[in-house]
TrEMBL record:
This is DNA polymerase III subunit psi. Keywords: DNA replication, DNA-directed DNA polymerase, Nucleotidyltransferase, Transferase. Transmembrane segments: none annotated. GO terms for molecular function: 3'-5' exonuclease activity; DNA-directed DNA polymerase activity. The keyword Metal-binding does not apply. GO terms for biological process: DNA replication. It comes from the Bacteria.
């Protein structure tokens, strides 16, 4: 952790801990968090859809016959802690897929880069159509 981050945490009154024996955790795997059974699409992106991006995101969902309550967003670093059983689609926007998934997978730039860019929208649409 950088000195700047450590200083911010200290100013916020957040305690920091450092493992004295990290090797003791070798091989430890925490339990994965299950998603709601309603979730059919998981958006993995450093950017959460809000405002105009949420409107665009909802249009993409409708194109694959899903509604907003059937989608969830997570930050890329949290993907390994999520149980993906039952999820039909996993959309990586602005990050790479680091694992092989059973779900239909979409790969795109950030939503903010897709919004208003016809080529990026076409590329995304072609990926969606490839699953029909």
């Amino acid at each position: 952790m950088s000195q700047t981050h450590a200083q911010y945490l200290q100013e916020m009154g957040i305690s920091q801990w450092e493992l004295s024996h990290p090797e003791r955790l070798a091989g430890y795997e925490s339990k994965r968090t299950p998603l709601s059974s309603e979730c059919k699409l998981l958006l993995v992106s450093p950017e959460k859809p809000q405002g105009d991006l949420a409107v665009m995101f909802e249009r993409v969902l409708k194109s694959i016959k899903l509604d907003l309550p059937q989608a969830l967003h997570i930050q890329p670093q949290h993907l390994t802690s999520i149980e993906l059983d039952g999820v039909e689609w996993v959309w990586f926007a602005g990050c790479e897929s680091a694992q092989e998934l059973k779900a239909k997978t979409l790969q795109s730039p950030l939503l903010s880069d897709i919004n208003g860019n016809n080529q990026h929208r076409r590329d995304l649409w072609q990926q969606i159509c490839a699953y029909d």
